[in-house]
Amino acid sequence: MENFAFAPAYELPVWPFTPPPELNSAKVVRHPIVIVGAGPSGLTLACDLAQRGVHAVLLDEDDTVGVRGASSRGICYAQKSLEIFERLGVYERIAAKGITWSFGRTFSGEQEVYNFNLQANSVSRQPPFINLQQFYVEWFLVERILELGRTDVRWKSRVTRVEQLADGVRLDIETPAGSYTIEADRLIDATGANSPIRAQLGIEAHASRSTDRWCISDVRFRKPLPTERWTWVDAPFNEGRGVWQHLMADGVWRIDYQMPEDCDTAHISKPEVAGARLREQLGPDVEFEFVWIGPYGYRDHLLDSFRHGRVFFIGDAAHVVSPFGARGGNSGIQDAANLGWKLALVAQGKAGDALLDSYDAERQPAAAQNLQVTSRSARFLAPRSPAEHTLRRAVVALAARHPFARALVNTGRMSVANDYPPAPALPEGGRTVQNLPLRWADGRGTTLMQLLDEGTQCIGLWFAPTREQALAALDASAALPLRLLAVGGDSGLPTLQADEQLARHLGIGHAGGFVLVRPDAYRAAVLTQATPEAIAAALRTALAHDTAP
Length: 549
Fold this sequence. Notes:
By secondary structure, this protein is α+β, with helices and mostly antiparallel strands. 30% of the residues lie in helices and 27% in strands. The strands form 6 sheets. Strands 1, 2, 8, 9, 10, 11, 18 and 19 form an 8-stranded mixed sheet that branches. A 7-stranded mixed sheet has the order 6-5-13-14-15-12-16. A 6-stranded mixed sheet has the order 21-28-27-24-25-26.
């Protein structure tokens, strides 16, 4: 048998298990917020709450990040997620370690049929995508959480039983030092696709019947490949199935090979089999070493509701979609950002429980949209009927010659921040606001994320109000979580410079216009001619009609 070189394994950090105080107490302690699962969504939520000064307990079965063996897992982090990481204080580390990209090519056989540049429509400080192995993102989040010092992180803590109470949730937890019971006002399940909490509560996930299978190879090459996202619709070197090729950190390439559903997962992951695929793709003389090889399989699922009483589901515990377009992990990160500020305002007594219902009203439709988009990609890449095969051949042939057909080549619509449908807290629906570079009136630079990282409050951007209007608005909204800023003019408010790009991106820019931006950087309301009363009313609506101080 041919010998294959394996690169030294990554050295993942390990954090110590500390026996919790409840082990020595007969009393069942109640915690306001308990998060189960220290993957990307659970860690993002814990970090988001800590950044807002809110304490939480975070439980995880392991004492490290990623998975044993250091596979790359999720690698593509989209602009909205990167903007969230900017606010949480980990973006600079991610950008320094990861690979920034915006250009991609799509091939059919040996022919390039389509390419794209995601930078074209971006106005954000963050790039469209950064590739980075998932465990690094988790690692940086854990260190940031520990630095903030407001989260009780409990490693080696496995939840064995969950019971819904009238006013909370009871959890039994198993640790190396023994078992104990705690209660939570609210429990957030971030335990992933095979959530034991979801199973215990008997919640139907509506999993798809078929399993999509891939073999992932994390590889270092002696000779670098182009730093672009390359996709093959029907790779001749993979028996006419799909292939993805990405560069990650540490000079490691991630190559995903689509496999038959009935494949032998152990066989396809053997080094000699994976090596033969690489040589078929890149030539018999290609020099490489494996970092990790492994099968990957998934079934789509989607919960009917992401809230069940006092239990909230985020990330893969709530939804699993095809990996095409990086809509899975990014969606979980954005679940956490949507829920975090709402939990914080409720915990701080600045909003009522009704605000938490808006999490499901916004994120469940977003997940349904992602499932629809990725399912179409899956059918394009793995046609299930002669008609679908014929359609794909026609689209690929047209795309090589006609620009209109290139948009039909569906190898994954890249992850974007979903728009939210109209709902009680968002009468006109919601749309993300990119992390625009801004300037104060005195010329100092700032960004939208920097405006949002101070406390938990909405940002009101008011174009050239008068001094009288500004004073009246401050009085009308004094008891509400609002940071009121002027854009241009001489109102006495903290003032940003008027900017055409800002006005165009917000959808309004004339004197008297007003835009309300939520703590998760979603546009909640647009007022063409604002009054102090209308501003306060818009804010109350965004907080689910809660007027509590």
